[in-house]
Specification:
Length: about 425
């Protein structure tokens, strides 16, 4: 099939490459010329494991090209909208500028029988509104909503082998004429057994908001348990292992630590609350305010614990932060709890050095006042305390005996509860975890 993908960020670039991998003719379109130049030379402007290799592979087949010219969408059968919906400045709601601009810009190029497929995470009601625009422009075209559930760091495999497909179609009927077209797009994973659900437009939009809210709630629930564990001398890691063995609960997303961040969960729960408020259903989601508050408290807690670890004062203390991405295997620092903690410590008088295998240029653009050192061996030299805040494998593998020789004082705060406390203490370290004795 001939496919256009509008928006080539973390979602769209991966989607475009994966659609070409599935055998389709794809054009990726983005207003950012630099992004287009990078993608055209098979070098994604962000880090995503396996993506550059995939871009190279599919570009060699001639099935994938990138352009900043929206008119290149003309001639495609299916148009995927993959642009961002960031949080509005100073408000909780989602900023719909990009989704609206992409859809309106696309209208002149929509031909008879085309299908416009929204993948962006949007407030419920958006799809119905945009469907009207599409129908006004081309009465035989269709608009579907097909939310995306990929995780950064696993984006390629999540796109090629997702847990499920959700198709939102007007009326929610399997018989809708566009269902077959989308089935043809995803025929490889569908044949391999990926389940797909056909629902109506608002349900499809809500599935995404509900899924991210549930994930955020799981994390904040565990972090709330961590607070109780801290108050009672219990260990949240053991608690999570034990409750996670109940199939109904499950162990995934029960890792306590510095909390969730990134370009999705924080802004999605806020946008969901804002939208529910507009719909008069705000009471239904007041718990998400608590989920957000528990999450934000983690950051303050880490600053307090760092002060304790440094003997009561942060002033002049050399603190090295290991990991600044919002999670490992990503160079994304949007709402990264690690960076926000690093900046707080610096503001409170500590001398903070940040190291990370991938994000330093992104991080230094956001927080130029922090000191960055790409070489982790250099970064830890003469440190008064280490803070492991993003659990990259190389930090999990650190040897406490070797590391003790580099630092000024062997003190570590394990913000992700991934180190073996007993081993670090045996090597002479003062070890603090979160929600652990
Ligand atoms: C999230 C969802 O997991 C995806 O399904 C969704 O498609 C995506 O948002 C989106 O809306 O586009 P992502 O933001 O890539 O994906 O990251 P997650 O893997 O969900 O992690 C989010 C944050 O939670 C990270 O900061 C991570 O460190 C933290 N986390 C995760 C915990 O603190 N504890 C856990 O147990 C798991």
């Amino acid at each position: 099939m001939r496919i256009s993908v509008i928006g080539c960020g973390y979602l769209g670039a991966v989607h475009a490459a994966c659609m070409a991998k599935l055998g389709h003719e794809v054009v990726g379109i983005d207003v950012d010329e630099q992004k287009i130049a990078a993608l055209s030379s098979a070098a994604a402007p962000f880090y995503e494991p396996d993506l550059d290799e995939l871009l190279r592979e599919v570009q060699e087949t001639g099935r994938l090209r990138f352009t900043s010219d929206l008119s290149a969408a003309a001639g495609s059968d299916i148009h995927f909208i993959c642009v961002g919906t960031p949080q509005k400045k100073g408000e909780n709601g989602a900023d719909m500028t990009y989704v609206d601009a992409a859809t309106i810009g696309l209208l002149p190029y929509i031909a008879s029988g085309n299908v416009v497929v929204g993948k962006s995470t949007v407030p419920v009601g958006t799809a119905a509104r945009l469907a009207n625009l599409v129908l006004d422009a081309e009465p035989s075209a269709h608009l579907l909503w097909n939310p995306e559930f990929l995780r950064e760091g696993h984006a390629v495999s999540d796109t090629l082998q997702p847990d499920r497909f959700v198709y939102g179609v007007p009326g929610g009927s399997e018989e809708h004429p566009a269902v077959g077209l989308l089935d043809a797009v995803y025929s490889t994973p569908l044949t391999a057994g990926t389940p797909r659900l056909v629902v109506d437009l608002p349900t499809a939009e809500l599935v995404k908001a509900a899924a991210n809210s549930f994930l955020a709630t799981k994390i904040s629930f565990t972090n709330a348990m961590a607070e109780v564990c801290e108050a009672s001398g219990a260990d949240v890691s053991g608690l999570a292992d034990a409750i996670g063995m109940d199939d109904r609960i499950g162990r995934k997303f029960l890792n306590a630590g510095i909390g969730f961040g990134g370009g999705c969960l924080p802004k999605d729960i806020r946008a969901f609350m804002a939208r529910a408020g507009e719909l008069g259903a705000d009471q239904a989601l007041t718990f998400l305010r608590e989920v957000d508050a528990i999450n934000m408290r983690r950051r303050t807690r880490v600053v307090e614990l760092s002060r304790e670890l440094c003997g009561g004062s942060l002033l002049g203390m050399r603190i090295t932060v290991l990991g600044a991405a919002f999670k490992p295997e990503s160079d994304d620092v949007r709402d990264s709890p690690a960076l926000s903690i690093a900046a707080q410590l610096q503001l409170q008088g500590a001398v903070v050095t940040v190291t990370d295998p991938k994000v330093l240029s992104n991080a230094s653009r956001r927080f130029p006042e922090l000191q960055y050192e790409p070489n982790s061996e250099k970064a830890v030299q003469k440190a008064d305390a280490l803070l492991l805040l993003t659990e990259w494998q190389e930090y999990r593998d650190l040897d406490p005996y070797e590391l003790a020789r580099s630092v000024a004082s062997p003190r570590i705060l394990d913000g992700r509860n991934v180190l073996d406390a007993g081993k670090w203490r045996a090597a002479g370290w003062t070890y603090r975890g979160l929600g652990r004795p």
